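Mods, move this if it's the wrong board.
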Amino acid sequence: MARGGLAGLLAGFTALAVAEVVAGLVRPAAGPVTVVGGAVIDRTPAAVKDFAIRAFGENDKFVLQLGILVLLSLFALVLGVLALRYRRAGAAGVLVFGIVGAAAALSRPDSAGGGDALPSLAGAVAGAAVLYVLAGQATAAGSPFGDEGTGGVWSRRGFLIAATVTAAAATGAGVLGRTLSGQRGQGAVASRGGLTLPAPASPAPAAPSGTRLKVPGISEFTTPNRDFYRVDTALVVPKVDAVTWRLRIHGKGVTRPRTYTLEELLARPLIERDITLTCVSNEVGGPYIGNARWLGVPLADLLAECGVEPPSKGGKADQLVARSVDGMTLGSPVEDVMDGRDAILAVGMNGEPLPFDNGFPVRMLVPGLYGYVSACKWIEDIELTTFDAYDPYWVKRQWARRAPIKTQARIDTPKPFARPVAGTVMVAGVAWAQRRGITRVEVRIDEGLWQDADLAVQDTVDTWRQWSYRWQAAPGGHTLTVRATDGTGQTQTEERTRTIPDGASGWHSVFVSVP
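Not the wrong board. Structure tokens:
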């Protein structure tokens, strides 16, 4: 039985390794683990996805891939044991794995056609052949419980030799596959490395003095690129070559459809703006928010160039559907994109080309809207349509069609369950209400009265605002709570809601113990 299990694992390993090689030749994103994982993500209920993000954060994709590998290993073990008695049935089981992978590849929204099925099918054929041969060797080595005869000794040696050769060959194939996949992305890496961003025609205004508070533990006003959150469904970050990248604008009410190259976008007058981006999956007090200085092309100008009018001026389309190279679709209200806010197609982030994780070469941003209805990364297509005619990816999964960002405040310091010493303790954090701005932040200690916090100077209504409060901490356990008021005079609600369908709400609080 042990030999059968080992044979099954080696067959599975071989299948994945060969699939990796073929994917490196065809398209790295067509690897079986990637396509099956993508299919699982697409078919997972919204509530489960939301739980995965809460529980695992930005490691959710790693956990999913690890889970797939564990299940495949168990499947391979079972097939290996089965093959000791029924070699053909065991090998056929491996082929079934390949068919599932091929079907998943062809079902992906970014599928490039029949070629995407090749990695899974080729891997399955190789894995089935390995299992058939190793199962025969294992059977010849004696019963599942061993055979102490001389022939059995030599048979066991034959099995061990075959298993060792298989493991070495599969390892080599895996390394080769990784190398090929990496080489296919070298063009994209080179294109990013060679890209020089032009100076903006409209630079971002210098942040006013007093925008950044010097409080240990508070979020930096400008989030470094390395720390900027990443929430998406891409198991493999797309590596798009800027030289071959194109953006198509078409659809309802587009009288002059256009296709743009990156070179053409960079030749246009660019604007630079500080904009805080927020993910709808951000729980109250969560980390999925960041502020950066973005460089890009005003999106409204491109749409107007293509003949698009907003609905308020008689335009035929009320929804802009942005598509990424991996097939993701996001829907934004045309009126919001063209109402004068700084909606942009960003090419730069904090003074450098967009990182691959953040959408290189081009991504879309619309201040005031959650990312799932505005912040398409790796964008390649913009279609004008209506909300009645088309539901984008997340809307099909129970999220709201329209999602303006809700007013929120977060305590960055002290951290939950911290043990600050008695005396003056700085409580500090950030608050945000994009397009409305923050006018007031209040802090409450336990069930006491609300006290005004000190606000940093506001940069713009599209950025978060830092705040601080000097608390005279007394010994004991204490609950610190914060709430914010936006520029319209509305104070955020106490009512706790889930992130689904249009963003979380409620007051953020932390518990600390003062010795």
